[in-house]
Amino acid sequence: MQNLDVYISEILAEDLGPGVRDVSVFSLGNASERIAKGRVVAKSDGVISGLWLVEKVLKEVEKFSRPVSMFLCPARVEYMCKDGDFASSGTLIAEINGPVGTLLTSERTILNLLQRLSGVATLTRSFVEAIKGSKSQILDTRKTTPGMRSLEKLAVRHGGGMNHRFGLYDMVMLKDNHITAMGGKIKSAISNARQLVGPTLKIEVEVANLVQFEEALNTDVDMIMLDNMTPSEMKKCVEIAAGKVPLEASGGITLESVKKVAETGVDYISVGALTHSAKALDISMKISF
Amino acid sequence: MQNLDVYISEILAEDLGPGVRDVSVFSLGNASERIAKGRVVAKSDGVISGLWLVEKVLKEVEKFSRPVSMFLCPARVEYMCKDGDFASSGTLIAEINGPVGTLLTSERTILNLLQRLSGVATLTRSFVEAIKGSKSQILDTRKTTPGMRSLEKLAVRHGGGMNHRFGLYDMVMLKDNHITAMGGKIKSAISNARQLVGPTLKIEVEVANLVQFEEALNTDVDMIMLDNMTPSEMKKCVEIAAGKVPLEASGGITLESVKKVAETGVDYISVGALTHSAKALDISMKISF
Amino acid sequence: MQNLDVYISEILAEDLGPGVRDVSVFSLGNASERIAKGRVVAKSDGVISGLWLVEKVLKEVEKFSRPVSMFLCPARVEYMCKDGDFASSGTLIAEINGPVGTLLTSERTILNLLQRLSGVATLTRSFVEAIKGSKSQILDTRKTTPGMRSLEKLAVRHGGGMNHRFGLYDMVMLKDNHITAMGGKIKSAISNARQLVGPTLKIEVEVANLVQFEEALNTDVDMIMLDNMTPSEMKKCVEIAAGKVPLEASGGITLESVKKVAETGVDYISVGALTHSAKALDISMKISF
Amino acid sequence: MQNLDVYISEILAEDLGPGVRDVSVFSLGNASERIAKGRVVAKSDGVISGLWLVEKVLKEVEKFSRPVSMFLCPARVEYMCKDGDFASSGTLIAEINGPVGTLLTSERTILNLLQRLSGVATLTRSFVEAIKGSKSQILDTRKTTPGMRSLEKLAVRHGGGMNHRFGLYDMVMLKDNHITAMGGKIKSAISNARQLVGPTLKIEVEVANLVQFEEALNTDVDMIMLDNMTPSEMKKCVEIAAGKVPLEASGGITLESVKKVAETGVDYISVGALTHSAKALDISMKISF
Amino acid sequence: MQNLDVYISEILAEDLGPGVRDVSVFSLGNASERIAKGRVVAKSDGVISGLWLVEKVLKEVEKFSRPVSMFLCPARVEYMCKDGDFASSGTLIAEINGPVGTLLTSERTILNLLQRLSGVATLTRSFVEAIKGSKSQILDTRKTTPGMRSLEKLAVRHGGGMNHRFGLYDMVMLKDNHITAMGGKIKSAISNARQLVGPTLKIEVEVANLVQFEEALNTDVDMIMLDNMTPSEMKKCVEIAAGKVPLEASGGITLESVKKVAETGVDYISVGALTHSAKALDISMKISF
Amino acid sequence: MQNLDVYISEILAEDLGPGVRDVSVFSLGNASERIAKGRVVAKSDGVISGLWLVEKVLKEVEKFSRPVSMFLCPARVEYMCKDGDFASSGTLIAEINGPVGTLLTSERTILNLLQRLSGVATLTRSFVEAIKGSKSQILDTRKTTPGMRSLEKLAVRHGGGMNHRFGLYDMVMLKDNHITAMGGKIKSAISNARQLVGPTLKIEVEVANLVQFEEALNTDVDMIMLDNMTPSEMKKCVEIAAGKVPLEASGGITLESVKKVAETGVDYISVGALTHSAKALDISMKISF
Q: A133 and A240 in one domain?
């Protein structure tokens, strides 16, 4: 998602087709210009994310709508919440005033964005709540929806989580296969990597057991990922590390297991489910005249 | 997602950044060219969708990888499944042979696509299974992931479902707000719509109760959506319609409730959850040398 | 033509080149900023289409013009007609006020669009007029100018015609080759197609003679195209169909023959010439200071 | 039309929609992979242009078709003509062998391109034939189809014409408005222009009468356009110029009037109708198995 | 650089990455919205070029910045210079007022553009000054930075130079290899070229010695390039040409040698170094609160 | 430069224009297909960078060339050097065999890329050589050519340098203005930043004097930039830091001063001139038949 305007234009194109027409709104004829009010309302409890996209979708739809009606009255949005707010079921999130055609054409795209991103924010918040009181922090992963990574990473922050690396480009992560490819030794793998990528990037290494962990700790690695360890193994790692380097727990962590993981004292807990398995938050738009 | 090559290029760009570099693979130096085998394996039971994208991702990654290594050996894929196949946990789905750098750089993008699409196909299949024996068919909706609609609609077919309209452009759908905007009468709304959109598109109308249903039935509408009706209301509609026009049940239908809905005799059951709330299917890539 | 702004930008790029300069306007130096009036005038009788694009072209040209003159006065348009209006020769269609450089640079692009689209609208109106009083309606085809389909389909509506399908995506059309490929039987072809595409799309079938016609009528096809039939054959089809399904006449129909076709009682008459052989309507821009 | 691959992709997108599917071919199921032969045949006499695009369209369609059928057999083209050849009605122009689905999906796009471009080439040839024996040459104008200028200019060459400037960027053309804006004097307008655009571009000036013509001749202009003059006025200009500078006749010249214009001895005759009012050449694709 | 908005968006994308975030500005939290003043100041003497891009960069950055802060105050620019002005070291060129985050994010992109383009303008001016009093004019070449040709050609004009051809498309240039490929004769090469490209483009021919020069002079070529000749050879050419056709000196001309070249009386002197070896002009942005 | 293929296509478009034609090659007619050999030769000593782009340019040109000649023989490249090699003047770098038209059309684009990138690599190598024997390493900056950052950063590596951050997205850099905006205290600025950006990115802080340096050293910053300090100040910083954190010298460092800077013992020396003021390396293509 390099350029947000291009992205919004692409997802609308997906809905409007190359003829750029909402045939249902087109069926309304001039009635599509009647001014209506669209009330965006949460239908279950959750954290809102994606509100800042609402106006962008409306702007794009207005561009597309021009042929139907030459001087279309622009829609206006009033926000009752902001991204990151918790909304209980029934909360009015935003109100859009404009031609009913504009509202109807943009409704599904706005809701698809808001529901998915708020779903991510809400699930993140559940994880954050589950470990409240611990010193651990919830991180996302790269297991994001293709095309929506930066939006979903923003949703994670709205839910109270922190971001892990954004891509393959902003941190070195050496997993078992990287290390095997480089000959199997963690220490030399890390020093080779440092030599090649220069001084500006952090290097994290993934370890699967205590032997590897101690080998990793004995280097100037910047972060260590404890992959699929049991809580007791993690706890041992935390003790051995003694704060020398930040530790990240990773691997199939669920809402049920996350508290146990946090109690081991790891600094970070990364959770793929935040983005790959969040359910959409139920949000609807009620239109009235 | 107008052009698939552009889409694949964009989602890789999201992961590789403008410097177009996987800094972890870059850290391997020449070791990134070692030939390895990547085994794509299902880690839980499900229906596979998205396999046809694997080679496209690899081709794109190879383009991006060129600066590192001028004459990179191309990766090759062997498929053990095809899209739409059911794979039980542990099934080898595909095997990729190529430089380890190519495998590592493409791994997450391939899995993000496969996991999400297979999640959609798998959830679809659950719904299809749940109503087996009935004459109803499961339909998707427009509640898809922004940017992935056509891929997700293909996944729905892989899971045994059928597709509802692809967008705002290929069928007229008159909901309550459309009808209100046109004056409130279903009959005149439909004939106005037919006059404006011409003869090539079907018109579906949404009704919320029996009064509206009978009003709709009394027109030459092509399909009627029963919105949030109870099973007993739906059953009455089915009886009254007597096959004159296809009926679609819609509104918050779950795996628990779907069988009851099918038993009413409706022709189609549309389920937003297929695409807005499917969990990723667990699939991994095991790399070995 | 997915995104209209991109389209306008591309057709201007075609005229301005990668150096983005109108060398003739550049030759004017500061004189290019003198305010002038451009009067867009019909030079022969016809139906206007494309007026809504005029401002978009001017906006794009103003973006391109910026380097020459940092704070260029924006051009403004006053419309004396609207799309779909009939203008007799000499009619003032619109008046543009702005820097003469902006007018000169945009003149040809504006006229190329207006002339072509108004040509389509005008030819459509001739066909519509030719069958006035009949119950038939004029339809366009997919024989449009590559890149301009949606604009030309809008022009057809401005001329009083209706739109046939917009592309390969919004209606199933089974021609002889489709049916041959599926084994040669119309009935089974249609039921296979319905099974595969689901309930949302209409299916039209092309027939070339009465035998095929009766076979088609005996299915639940949504529309039948009578391909290159004689008026007397068509008339027979109309009688046999007796309103059961809409009929479309197609194949080399001209302004001379269209009335005879309409008299057969077919519902729709599709005419490729509307878009593939319309002559540009003569429209000019007169600039004065 | 900056990049031809992008252009072909865009015009196919227009036909295939964002779901990228030909629903009629999709209806064929596996039958869409049956190998067929498509014979591209001229249905009236004309000059062929656009053959070089046929393979590009097929390549693009094959990309789009991949999801339906993972390992689609590629189509192959054999050419019986080349661009610029005259084909009499009934001539086999090219033969395409490949899956019937590929042929059906690409048929209309191929024909839309071939028919329009061959229409331009054919009309050009008529003008060229009409002045055979004279020393004049037929030029095109900038009155081209938006988005297709370079293709149409190539078609003009295929028809035996020559190209006028390609856009606003490759020649200075001073019309009455340019000269008025610069103060009204042709001589100073041309010397100002030469000073500003540098030495690499030709400057042409438009004149409407003999007084302006003599004023223009008295400068170092590179070409003079005689705008809407009568043949006798043009003849006088030719005599006065005496070969000092090339002369171009312009303004509403038709197939009927062009010979008279050529007889005046002008060097070039520019004809907007070549591109703005050419009728499509009738070409069809016959598919057989 | 077809479309400037796309170009600006691309170069910002290069700096901001697919996550579209300036992590340093992001680190400021709400402090990024504090209003600050950015003073753009010349740090050495030179000719300014590129000022017209400053606002475009800011506009683009503001689009990108939206997610961080929903209603960001837009930045405003006041210009103390205009493109083409000479600024001595210490001169205040422009002042930007706006949120410090906007200023910090756009600072480097603005300076990279301004410094490079002003470097080109400044070097051009040095060449122009070096030959002051002569009748020769300084031309640029096609040896420009890939992607920036039109901006650099504008910078050359700001420095007082003139532009040679913009690309391969707006002038014919026959070098030794072209002539060899066509059989080795300059005269026939030129007449063939004229026949093929039509009347609208100038033809320049490159000659390396007096024999070739006299052969070229004996044609109706529009300009002759004297390639790597000594000043005395050039002088002889000037005498022989006697103003019949413009002459261009070319080949490794430096600030040291250019005066000697100008004294030969050639009309134009083209200098590749203007664009391929200009040093960035030192310009900085000082931010204060 | 998100997608290299798009970039190459864009820079060729800049040279070929929307008509996509090299009018000089077009002038050759069929002679443009004669097979020729292009010898790419270094004309002065330097480090080569950009060779991997040569084939990509040729591939793109061949796409563009298709209309002229339907079945163009593809060009082939043989490499005598590889990127990063030092070539002395006269060295044959690569040899291209193919149609002379392809060679002539691609010549300038290939050379513009090679010359600029090799210029960067060569200047980098001079800096690396100048500090040979010291423990310091040469870093680049973000002062790159807009649109070419990743290519130039690769060139820096070919010249023996290391890369600083690639953009605003992969490292936090707190300069004086960032710290002022956050209240002026380095320590709190760094801990705020760490809290906001999460654990994956390094934080560097810029200091201008010893007081600031000691304040910075007293935090857990990952790198410290010594901005415009004198060698003796730097030396003091090196002593105080005692290896605790990497130090980077920055600010107007030249080939003359770099050795003195290296002798202070700083870890890294960043040099903007590597990319903003490198002169093109002289490279030419000699064509023969």
A: yes
| Beta-sheet pairing, C46-47 with B223-227 | unpaired
> D35-42 and D92-99 as β-strands: parallel, antiparallel, unpaired?
antiparallel
Give how far the C-alpha of residue C44 lies from the chain's centroid of Cα atoms, to the nearest Å: 19
Q: What DSSP character marks residue B269?
A: E
The catalytically annotated residue of F55, F214, F222, F227 is F227
Closest chain D residue by Cα to residue A10: D18
Is this complex's ipTM strictly greater than 0.90? yes
CA diameter of chain C: 73
Residue holding tokens 């007619």? Answer: F29
Question: Hey, which bits of C127-257 come out as E strands?
Answer: 137-139, 172-174, 203-207, 223-227, 247-250
Indicate if C244 and C269 belong to the same structural domain: yes
Domain match, B150 and B85 both: no
| Whether residue C113 is found in the same domain as residue C16 | yes
| Residue D188 belongs to domain with CATH number | 3.20.20.70
Give φ, ψ of D285 to 5 degrees: -120, 120
How far is the CA of B215 from the CAs of B181, B186, B212, B224, B245, in angstroms? 17, 7, 5, 11, 13
User: Do F80 and F205 sit in the same domain of this protein?
Assistant: no
- For residue D100, which amino acid is it? V
- For residue A76, list its beta bridge partners: A97
Q: With 90 as the cut, is the pLDDT of residue E70 above it?
A: no
Count of domains forming chain E: 2
Query: Within a 10 A sphere around the Cβ of F205, how many other Cβ atoms?
Result: 28
Highest averaged pLDDT of the listed ranges A54-68, D22-36, D253-267, F175-189: D253-267
Angle, helix F149-158 to helix F100-130, in steps of 10 degrees = 60
Cβ distance of D1 and F18 shorter than 8 Å: yes
For residues A56 and A154, state if they share a domain: no
**Domain hosting residue C268, numbered range:** 128-276
Active site residues per annotation of A? 108, 143, 175, 206, 227
CA distance B243 to A115: 36
Mutate to test the interface with A, among B39, B108, B148, B177 (most CBs of A within 10 A): B177
E202 and E132 in a common domain: yes
Residues B108 and B222 both lie in one domain: no
Tell me which residue of A92, A111, A95 sits closest to A37, measured CA to CA: A95
Q: How many CB atoms lie within 10 A of CB B282?
A: 20
Percentages helix, strand, coil for chain D, rounded to the nearest 5?
45, 20, 40
Please state, in angstroms and rounded to a whole number, the distance separating the CA atoms of residues B1 and A152.
19
- Identify the three-state secondary structure at position A180: helix
Nearest by Cα to D104 from C205, C202, C172, C178: C178
- Cα gap B107→B42, rounded to integer Å: 14
Q: In terms of C-beta distances under 8 Å and separation of at least 24 residues, what long-range contacts does C127-131 make, across chains too?
A: C127/C161, C127/C255, C127/C258, C127/C269, C127/C271, C127/C274, C128/C159, C128/C160, C128/C161, C130/C255, C130/C258, C130/C259, C130/C262, C131/C258, C131/C259, C131/C261, C131/C262, C131/C269
F55 neighbors F40 (Cβ within 8 angstroms)? no
Q: Are strands E46-47 and E86-87 parallel, antiparallel or unpaired?
A: antiparallel
pLDDT in tens, A104-129: 999 999 999 999 999 999 999 999 99
Tens digit of each residue's pLDDT (9 = 90 or more) over C234-280: 999 999 999 999 999 999 999 999 999 999 999 999 999 999 999 99
The residue assigned the tokens 């068509």 is C234
Compare CB distances from B193 to A27, A113, A180 and report the shortest one's residue.
A27
The CATH number of residue C76's host domain is 3.90.1170.20
| Rounded Cα–Cα distance for residues B81 and B87 (Å) | 8
Neighbours of chain F (3+ CB pairs under 8 A): A, B, C, D, E
Q: Residue F67's closest chain D neighbor by CA? A: D52
State the Cα–Cα distance between residues A174 and A212, nearest whole angstrom.
Answer: 12
